[in-house]
């Protein structure tokens, strides 16, 4: 059986072929092609596409393609149930799902960086997932440190770190990058959405959408963008002589009517009323 997916695999596109060859079809042929050729080549080669949008074998909600293969083929091996959240966490950048996810991502990213040939990369990936499967089957309770002294020192260290950081919240690194990206797009009046953000940050869009409000004022992505646009429009209303139509354009609203409607919903008055109020207040201050 032939299976086909996007080139330059890292997580799902290595984990799924491993799963196919080890549990579904040992002689399966895995084909990697440019993303825009997957469906046409699938039809030409009579291959099953996977891990691309719009096909059966892909992501569903917060589940990755590896999860779907396990569900589809009703694979009951307990070790696969252990591996699934590790793979999912690495593939969706949600490393809280399993402690091993960040390590799997780091190894996979480094492996892809060092190996340019996708078939060679797949063969090396098979070794990684064989090792992960052995760990999940036999070694999950094993610890690297064995002596009582080492355990005691580690426990003291962990307690120290825990106390030191207990009041610090863990904020993902991508939040700072995303704030900068959003500000850049707001300043240049460019269209910006979750798809663009996820591509520029290399973060899974479903994870980004789910986690966004935790780090951005409890607002959804759309609500946060509108908030920034309103703030920018207030600055322009107060400091520039631009017309309302120009300000609507400069702050990314589709037209002046849209700008008026959103501004009033946030501020309780139209942009024109707000500008008049500000100018009147400044006039009273000069007296």
From TrEMBL:
<dbReference type="InterPro" id="IPR018062">
    <property type="entry name" value="HTH_AraC-typ_CS"/>
</dbReference>
<keyword id="KW-0805">Transcription regulation</keyword>
<keyword id="KW-0804">Transcription</keyword>
<dbReference type="Pfam" id="PF12833">
    <property type="entry name" value="HTH_18"/>
</dbReference>
<dbReference type="InterPro" id="IPR009057">
    <property type="entry name" value="Homeodomain-like_sf"/>
</dbReference>
<dbReference type="GO" id="GO:0003700">
    <property type="term" value="F:DNA-binding transcription factor activity"/>
</dbReference>
<keyword id="KW-0238">DNA-binding</keyword>
<dbReference type="InterPro" id="IPR020449">
    <property type="entry name" value="Tscrpt_reg_AraC-type_HTH"/>
</dbReference>
<dbReference type="GO" id="GO:0043565">
    <property type="term" value="F:sequence-specific DNA binding"/>
</dbReference>
<dbReference type="InterPro" id="IPR018060">
    <property type="entry name" value="HTH_AraC"/>
</dbReference>
<feature type="domain" description="HTH araC/xylS-type">
    <location>
        <begin position="176"/>
        <end position="277"/>
    </location>
</feature>
<protein>
    <submittedName>
        <fullName>Transcriptional regulator, AraC family</fullName>
    </submittedName>
</protein>
<dbReference type="Pfam" id="PF09828">
    <property type="entry name" value="ChrB_C"/>
</dbReference>
<dbReference type="InterPro" id="IPR018634">
    <property type="entry name" value="ChrB_C"/>
</dbReference>
């Amino acid at each position: 059986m032939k299976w086909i997916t996007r080139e330059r695999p890292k997580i799902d596109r290595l984990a799924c072929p491993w799963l196919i060859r080890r549990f579904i079809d040992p002689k399966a042929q895995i084909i990697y092609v440019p993303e825009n050729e997957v469906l046409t080549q699938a039809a030409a080669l009579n291959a099953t596409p996977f891990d691309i949008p719009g096909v059966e074998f892909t992501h569903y909600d917060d589940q990755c393609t590896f999860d779907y293969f396990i569900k589809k083929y009703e694979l009951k091996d307990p070790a696969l149930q252990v591996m699934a959240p590790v793979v999912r966490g690495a593939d969706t950048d949600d490393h809280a799902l399993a402690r091993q996810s960040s390590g799997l991502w780091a190894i996979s990213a480094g492996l892809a960086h060092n190996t340019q040939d996708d078939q060679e990369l797949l063969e090396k990936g098979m070794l990684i997932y064989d090792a992960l499967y052995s760990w999940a089957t036999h070694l999950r309770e094993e610890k690297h440190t064995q002596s009582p002294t080492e355990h005691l020192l580690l426990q003291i260290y962990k307690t120290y770190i825990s106390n030191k950081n207990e009041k610090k919240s863990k904020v993902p690194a991508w939040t700072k990058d995303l704030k900068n990206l959003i500000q850049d797009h707001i300043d240049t009046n460019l269209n910006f959405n979750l798809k663009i953000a996820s591509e520029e940050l290399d973060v899974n869009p479903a994870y980004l959408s789910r986690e966004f409000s935790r780090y951005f004022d409890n607002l959804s992505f759309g609500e946060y963008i509108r908030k920034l646009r309103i703030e920018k429009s207030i600055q322009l209303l107060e400091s520039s002589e631009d017309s309302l139509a120009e300000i609507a354009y400069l702050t990314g609203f589709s037209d002046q009517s849209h700008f008026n409607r959103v501004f009033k919903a946030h501020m309780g008055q139209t942009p024109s009323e707000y500008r008049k109020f500000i100018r009147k207040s400044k006039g009273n201050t000069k007296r």
